[in-house]
Amino acid sequence: MTKDANKQTSPAPELTSALEDYLETIYELVRDQKLARVKDIAKARGVRAGSVSPAMRRLAAMGLIDYAHREYIDLTPAGERLARRIYARHELLTQFFEKILQMPSDEARANACSMEHSLSPQGMEHLARFFEFLQICPDGPELLAKFHACSVVHEGSPDCLGSCQKVRNQQKNSQERLFSLWDVPHERQARVAQVEASAQVRQTLLDRGFLPGTRVVVIRRSADGQSVWVQIGGFELQLEKNYAQNVLMILED
To answer: How far apart are CA 92 and CA 132, in angstroms?
Structure first.
């Protein structure tokens, strides 16, 4: 790689997600074998060599790669800086999915690859600070261990280290009681605490916007008593009773 990769330059050019992927692939190949070849890039990206060349010409026109010899490709100083940034986003997201959420490695990297293109510098900064908290705070490892073992977050976990379940039981007898969405009083505002359902039902509810902390207002119930209309995220949504019963809510004043 080039020696002056840390030199300050003008703002990086705007790249499509596909070009970012190509630049990241070149970065990894150059890191591992000093130079990248078109056929290596094609193999790594799972595409034909003929489709690589147009992307290389665009990256070269942006001043991000040296493509003069057509076959062998190297990063320019500007290209290396940008590639490092893209790669860092990818690694940070991979760590989050794999180490924090404990997703399988291949799924973690696939999700990171999909999200890295839209992660803003501000988003990266906040995510990095979260990891720094886990490293620096004396309670960080313990908190992460509690999260990984929590029987509320991870269904069926046998060795919960925290007191989540105890707190939930206490809430039933306190002002901040957990209600199912179905039992929330008419026109009363509440916020989502947890979606407690099978994987398929849970995904459906999350896709409909029932995320932790989201405010919901019960508007009306169907005449047959089998569904409820709620206001969520500025829209009205009809929810079947069996779905509404799986959303745990906290009433708000």
So the answer is: 12
